[in-house]
Design goal:
By secondary structure, the protein is an alpha/beta fold. Helix content is 32%, strand content 19%. Helix 3 runs parallel beside helix 4. The structure holds 1,3,4-trihydroxy-5-OXO-cyclohexanecarboxylic acid. 1,3,4-trihydroxy-5-OXO-cyclohexanecarboxylic acid binds next to loops. InterPro entries: DHquinase_II (IPR001874), DHquinase_II_CS (IPR018509), DHquinase_II_sf (IPR036441).
Length: 137
Amino acid sequence: KRILILNGPNLNLLGRREPEVYGSQTFETYFETLPALFPELDLAYFQSNHEGAILDKLHEVGFSYDGIVLNAGAYTHTSVAIADAISGITTPVIEVHISNVHAREAFRHHSFISPKAAGIIVGFGLKGYELALRSFL
Ligand code: DQA
């Protein structure tokens, strides 16, 4: 199965960004550990700080891949365009958040993505990506 992990804005700063919230590991280092855990999955990773680039990637893989694990970062709370893209593609999308967004500011409690997601994993740190990948097995 082909799966894309798609990270949105500021997630390129993982490891350096608010480590008390998001941990001290970079995503690249974490991603390197995944093939050994999921030998049966063909994993790809893409990160962008640009909403349009995230849309382009969803369109590119969204009719051929078997799954997308999406952490849209702050666009989760603002982007009707990403929500519409998820409606428009056929590949199921699992929404992941590293932090427990419901324990944080009120503006993080609403997600435009959640109604379109096949499932939602929130608050388990980077382990959330593994939980999402496991669901595709
Ligand atoms: C996040 C939560 C969002 O509210 C925030 O804007 C992020 C990261 C998370 O993974 O916990 O950038 O998606």
